Amino acid sequence: MKILIHTCCGPCAVLFTKHFAAQNPDYEPHLLWFNPNIHPLTEYRNRQQAAHAFAQAAELPIIGADSDYGLRHFLQHVHTLDKGARCEYCYHSRLAFAAEQAVAAGLAAFTTTLLASPYQNFELIQRIGGDLARQHGLTFISPDFRANYRNGLAHAREMGLYMQKYCGCIFSEEERYR
Q1: In what order do the strands lie in the sheet containing 109-112?
Q2: What CA–CA distance (Å, rounded) separates 59 from 57?
Q3: What is the pLDDT of residues 136-166, one digit of tens each?
Q4: What structural domains and CATH numbers belong to the chain?
């Protein structure tokens, strides 16, 4: 089964692909890097490089590894929203792009490594992914690997991947360091 996996960072990609492969030995993952929410640019580049390094180490194809930043467009849409609405927009924009890329690549399914993090709204991501899948004639796969989150981080550390300290957007950075 060929599947597009929206990848938010290297550590979540490690966890997600490892556990997904264990459950689905016949899958062929294609990673997607699209995260215009991440701030500042240095953080974006660190996470982008970690995702690319993981893709190389795992010998997985990655789409968008050299994509443009996109922060201004993201901020235009979220700067006046409260936290819940910001996160919903963020999830939707990234998953909508992933669905479009899955269709363009001729893949029948997509998912996101955001589902691996206990810090994300799992149910909201499932709903948005399911809605987009129906709109695009795709399958949204939503495994729950949150219980293995710490193991995934440990494996990413062993690989020497960059480990972020907050979700990604300027608002989560503020919350983290406040």
Answers
A1: 62-63, 28-33, 2-7, 109-112, 139-140
A2: 5
A3: 999 999 999 899 888 888 888 898 888 888 7
A4: 2-177 (3.40.50.620)
